[in-house]
Amino acid sequence: MLKEYKTVSEVVGPLMAVEGVEGVKFDELVEVQLQTGEIRHGQVLEVNRDKAMVQIFEGPSGINIKDTKVRFRGKPLSLDVSEDMVGRVFSGMGEPKDGGPEIIPEKSLDVNGQAINPIARDYPDEFIQTGISAIDHLNTLVRGQKLPVFSGSGLPHKELAAQIARQAAVKNSDEKFAVVFAAMGVTFDEADFFMEDFRKTGAIDRSVMFINLADDPAIERIATPKMALTTAEYLAFEKDMHVLVIMTDMTYYCEALREISAARREVPGRRGYPGYLYTNLSTIYERAGRLIGKKGSVTQIPILSMPEDDITHPIPDLTGYITEGQIILSRDLNNQGFKPPINVLPSLSRLKDKGTGEGKTRKDHAPTMNQLFAAYAKGIEAKELAVVLGESALSETDKLYVEFTKRFEEDYINQGFYTNRSIEETLTLGWELLSILPRTELKRIKSELIEEFMPEGE
Amino acid sequence: MKKGNIVKVSGPLVMAEGMEHANIQDLCYVGDMRLVGEIIEMRYDVASIQVYEETSGVGPGEPVETTGEALSVELGPGIVSQMFDGIQRPLDSFKEQTNSNYLIRGVNISSLDREKKWAFKATKKVGDVVEPGDIVGTVQETKVIEHRILVPHGVQGTLTALADGDYSLEDVVFKVDTEDGEKELTMLQRWPVRRGRPFKKKLNPDKPMLTGQRVIDTFFPITKGGAAAVPGPFGAGKTVVQHQIAKFSDVDLVVYVGCGERGNEMTDVLNEFPELVDPNTGESLMERTILIANTSNMPVAAREASIYTGITIAEYFRDMGYSVAIMADSTSRWAEALREMSGRLEEMPGDEGYPAYLGSRIAEYYERAGRIQTFGSDEREGSITAIGAVSPPGGDTSEPVTQNTLRVVKVFWALDSSLAQKRHFPSVNWLTSYSLYLDDVGKFMDQELDTGWAEMVQHSMNILQEESELQEIVRLVGLESLSEKDRLTMLVAQSLREDYLQQNAFDDIDTFTSRTKQYYMLDLILSFEEEAREAMRLGAYYKEILEGTSDLRDRIARSRSIPEDNLEKITQIKTDMKELIHQIVAEGGMTQNA
Ligand SMILES: Nc1ncnc2c1ncn2[C@@H]1O[C@H](COP(=O)(O)OP(=O)(O)OP(=O)(O)O)[C@@H](O)[C@H]1O
Ligand SMILES: Nc1ncnc2c1ncn2[C@@H]1O[C@H](COP(=O)(O)OP(=O)(O)O)[C@@H](O)[C@H]1O
Ligand SMILES: [Mg+2]
Ligand SMILES: [Mg+2]
C-alpha cells in the first residue's frame, strides 16, 4: 500500500538522499529495506521538492544504492507503550532485547513529545531524600527536577546514580514509582553495572531499560533518550507513577548529533557541535517536570562525561544552561578516595529553595546550607594559603576553617556509596561541623536557630 | 486569498513558490495545519518563511497563504497579568481551548479577550480636537494599572462621538472626523512588532530606577530609560537578578520575557507574583506584570519574535506615560534563534556562526529603550528600561553576543561564577561591573537624601579596590606584612562584601532594601570605619578593635535583617558602636600607660 521508492541517490555517512518522492513530510518515519531484507529506520531531516534527506538510525553500512527500498510511513517516529514495559529491556530504538514477548501496545506515541504549556506545569517542590548529604542538604533534589551529574572518564558517576536510584525516597509517600534507564554509547560493563545493581535491590521489576551500547549504531542514540522519555511521560502522566529517568551518557548523544550535522555540512558551532545543540538538548531536558492535576512526575538524572574534565565544553555548558542545577564530581576528591566525590561548591540545585525548610525538611536547612557553603569556600582558601605560606601564616580563625574543611570532606561528603542518611542525620552532622567555628563566624544563621540547634559544649 | 505552494521544509524554515504577491515580513499560514509563519526573505516567487510552530508532518505541495499583514501584537485592555507565548497567544486560554497540557499546533486564538466588557471612562468630550497620542478615555485594567486609550497614530481631527460605559474591545468607543473622513475607533489597536512605536523626542535617562538590590542601587545603578546587560555563566544568578528586579523595581509596569529558558522559571513567576506584594503600591505584583514565555523547547522562530512582542507591548504602555521595565532572559537564546534561521537560509556566517547583522539587531532592540516625551498634547513622559541577560558559552564574555551588547548598554552587571560558588549572591563582580549612570544617580540621590551619598559610594568602592590590591600582597607574603591601617581596610572591605553587597533573595527581609535602609546600612559600616580609624589614630591597636568589636560587628552584619519599619535599630547600633569604640580607646590608653 505504501509507495516504495528505489531511488536512493546518495548515501553520505548516516544520511541518505531519496529522489523522485511525492507527499513526503518533514520529520516523518522512514523504513529502509536493504537488499538482504533487513529493515532499518530513518527520519526525514529535510524535504526539498522531490528530494528527501533521511537520517538512518542504524547507520549506512551495507546499504546498496541500487537495491535498497525506501518507504515513507506518514507518521513520526513512534513508540508502542503499555504498562507491561515495566521490568523489560529494550534496544535504543525500543525493540525488546530481553527475549521476552513483543509489547501489546496500549497506544502508540510520537517519541518527539510536545512542549509543555508553562501554564500547565506544577512547580516541583517535593523533597526527594537520596540519603546523600551533599545532595539532600546542599544540592537538594526534588520531584520533577532535571539534575544532571557532570562526570569525567573514570569517575564513579554510575555508583552515584545507582545510589540515588536505590535510596531515593519521598517522606510519607507510598506512591508508585519506576526507574527508566537509557544507556547511550556506554560500555557493556557500565550498563551491566546498573542492571546488576537494580537486580540486587529488586528495582529491576520497577524499571524500563533502553540500551544502546558503544558498539551499537551511533545514530540510534539520537532516538534513545526520546524512547526513554516517552515511556517516562506515559508512566508518569497516564499511570500516575513517579519516574526517575537516568540517562547515560549524554556526551555520546551529542556526538551523534554532531555526526549528523557534519554529514549535512552545516555551519558548525563551538568545537564542531551544531549551533542548535542548545535547542536540541532542551527538547530532552525540558521533558522533566510535573503537571497540574497529575499525580506522577518525571525526574531526570542525565549523566555526562566532560571531555577533558572541561566544564566549559559545549556539552556540560549547554546542559548547565538548561537543567535545574548540576552535581559535579571532582577528580581531586576521587583521588583522595572520597565517596561520592561530589564537588559541592560548583554543584547547584536551583529548585532547593522551594523544596526545603519547615514542613518539608527542617527550618534550619537553608541557613545551615548557606553557612556550610560559605565556610567550606573559606576553608579551601585558607588551605591554599597554608600551602603557599605555611600553616603558621594562618590566623587562629583560619586554622579552625582548615580543621572544619578537613572534617567536612572526610565525614560529611565521604559517606560512602552504601550509607543512607536521613536528612535529620545530615543536619545534625552539619551542626556538629559548624560547632568547630567561632560563633561570630556564623553570620548566615539567625541567632535563634543557633540557640536551638547548636550542640552543647562546643 | 492567493496561495503559494510549499517546495521545501527544513526544520522551522519552509520555502514556498508562487508567492510573488506576498511581502517581506508578511504573516502567513503554512501547510494544511495552518501553522503561523513569517516571510523573512523573497527570491523571485519563492518565499522563505520562518514558522512559529513545529513543522513536523509538513511537506511539499501543501499550501501557504499570506495574510498580507506583518507580525503584529494586539494592544488594548486585557494585556496586563497575562502570560503570552512569543507571538502573543495567551497561554491560559490556549490551555482551555485545546484542553491539553501541551502546546499543540495550528491553534488559532486571539491575543486579547473579545468578550470581556471594560468600563471605559471618557476623558475628553465630543468636539475636542485630538491628535495622535491624546488620551480619550481610561479603563481601570487592574488595581494598579489605568489603561489609557490613545488616539492612534495617523488619526487627527475632531471628536465626533465618545462613549462612556461598559464596552468590549471591538465596540466603537470614539469617532474622529479627520481629513480623510470619519474614523471609527475601538479600544483595540494593532502594531507590527518589528517597528518601534514613534515618540516626540528622547530625553536623558537620569533618574534612578530603584530595584531594592543593594549592589545595584548603590554601586551600579540603572535609570528609568536606561539599558543594562547581565552576563554570566550558568548558575551565576542572572535569572534571580532579573526576577528580583521584576519584583521590586519602582516602575509602573514590568514586561518579563522568558526567551529560550526554563519552563519552570516561568511557572515560578506565575505562582509567586500573584502572592507577592509590590512594595510601591501595596497590591499584588501580578497587577503590574506581563509575561512572555517562549521557553527553550518551544519553537525557535517564535523565540526570535518574543523579544519584539515584549518590547512593543512595553512601548505601548510607555506611550501612555508610564515607566516600564522589560527583562529578557536570555538575549543569547534569541541570538541563537537568529543564528539558526540564518544558517538554514545558508547566509554567510560571521563571528561564531552568527549572522553579520547580529550587532545591528541587538542595537536596534536596546535603542527601543529610553526615556521619552510621548506624542499627545499633554506632554507626557514615559520610559522603558531594558535589561537583558546574556549567557556566554563557557562564561567567556569575549563572544559576539556579549560584546555587541556591551557596545549599546550603559550598565554592565558582570556575574561571576567564583562568587556564585562561594554563595556570594548577587554575584555581581564589583571590580569589573560598571554603570555609566553612576554620576547622574549620585547627584539625584544627594538632592533627595540630602547627604553625601555619592561620596559614600565612591569611598566604599575605593575600599573594595584597595582590598583587592592588599589581597594580592597577602597571597604572596601573608597577613603579617600588612600595616595596621591596611588590616582595618581589609576588615571594612569584608564587611562591605559580606554585610552589604551580599543579599539573599530568598530571605523575607533581605530580599528588598529600600533606598533609606541602604543609606542607613552603608552609613553604619562607614561610620564603623571612621570611628575605628580615629581610635587607631588615638593609639588603639587593630587587634583591640578587632577583638573588642566582634559582637558589635556581628550586629552590623545582621542589620540586613532589620525590617524596613524599624530602622531606628540601625541608628541604635551606630550609637552603641561609637560608645564601644570610645571605650576601647579609653581602656587601650590605660593599658598603654600602665
Ligand atoms: N566576594 C568576593 N569576591 C572576590 N573574591 C573574594 C570574595 N570573597 C572572598 N574572595 C577571595 O577570597 C580570599 C579571601 O577571602 P576571605 O573572605 O577569606 O577574606 P577575608 O574575609 O578578608 O579574610 P579574613 O576574615 O580571614 O581576614 C581572597 O583571595 C579573595 O580574592
Ligand atoms: N540573590 C540571591 N540570593 C540567594 N541565592 C541566589 C541569588 N541569586 C542566585 N542565587 C542562587 O543561584 C542559583 C542560580 O541562579 P539563576 O539566576 O537561576 O542563574 P542563571 O540564570 O545565571 O543560570 C539560584 O537557583 C539560587 O539558588
Ligand atoms: Mg579569611
Ligand atoms: Mg537563568
UniProtKB/TrEMBL annotation, chain A:
Family annotation (CDD domains): ATP-synt_V_A-type_beta_C, ATP-synt_V_A-type_beta_N, V_A-ATPase_B
UniProt keyword terms in alphabetical order: ATP synthesis, Hydrogen ion transport, Ion transport, Transport
Transmembrane helix among keywords: no
Domain ATPase F1/V1/A1 complex alpha/beta subunit nucleotide-binding: 131-349
Residues in ATP synthase A/B type C-terminal domain copies: 355-453
Gene3D superfamilies hit by this protein: 3.40.50.12240
GO biological process: proton motive force-driven plasma membrane ATP synthesis
GO molecular function: ATP binding; proton-transporting ATP synthase activity, rotational mechanism
Sequence ranges assigned to domain ATPase F1/V1/A1 complex alpha/beta subunit N-terminal in this UniProt record: 8-74
Cited Pfam families: ATP-synt_ab (PF00006), ATP-synt_ab_N (PF02874), ATP-synt_VA_C (PF22919)
Keyword Ribonucleoprotein: no
Function: Produces ATP from ADP in the presence of a proton gradient across the membrane. The V-type beta chain is a regulatory subunit.
Family: Belongs to the ATPase alpha/beta chains family.
Protein's UniProt name: V-type ATP synthase beta chain
UniProtKB/TrEMBL annotation, chain B:
Source organism per UniProt: Streptohalobacillus salinus
Any one of the GO CC terms: proton-transporting ATP synthase complex
Catalytic activity: ATP + H2O + 4 H(+)(in) = ADP + phosphate + 5 H(+)(out)
Domain called ATPase F1/V1/A1 complex alpha/beta subunit nucleotide-binding: residue spans: 212-435
Gene Ontology biological-process annotations: proton motive force-driven plasma membrane ATP synthesis
Functional note: Produces ATP from ADP in the presence of a proton gradient across the membrane. The V-type alpha chain is a catalytic subunit.
Top enzyme category: translocase
Designated name of the protein: V-type ATP synthase alpha chain
Alphabetized InterPro entries for the sequence: ATP-synt_VA_C, ATP-synth_a_Xtn, ATP_synth_asu-like_sf, ATPase_a/bsu_AS, ATPase_F1/V1/A1_a/bsu_N, ATPase_F1/V1/A1_a/bsu_N_sf, ATPase_F1/V1/A1_a/bsu_nucl-bd, ATPase_F1/V1_b/a_C
Residues of the ATP synthase A/B type C-terminal domain: 445-535
Homology family: Belongs to the ATPase alpha/beta chains family.
Residues in ATPase F1/V1/A1 complex alpha/beta subunit N-terminal domain copies: 6-68
Keyword terms: ATP synthesis, ATP-binding, Hydrogen ion transport, Ion transport, Nucleotide-binding, Translocase, Transport
Ranges for domain ATPsynthase alpha/beta subunit barrel-sandwich: 110-194
EC identifiers of the protein: 7.1.2.2
A GO molecular function held by the record: proton-transporting ATP synthase activity, rotational mechanism
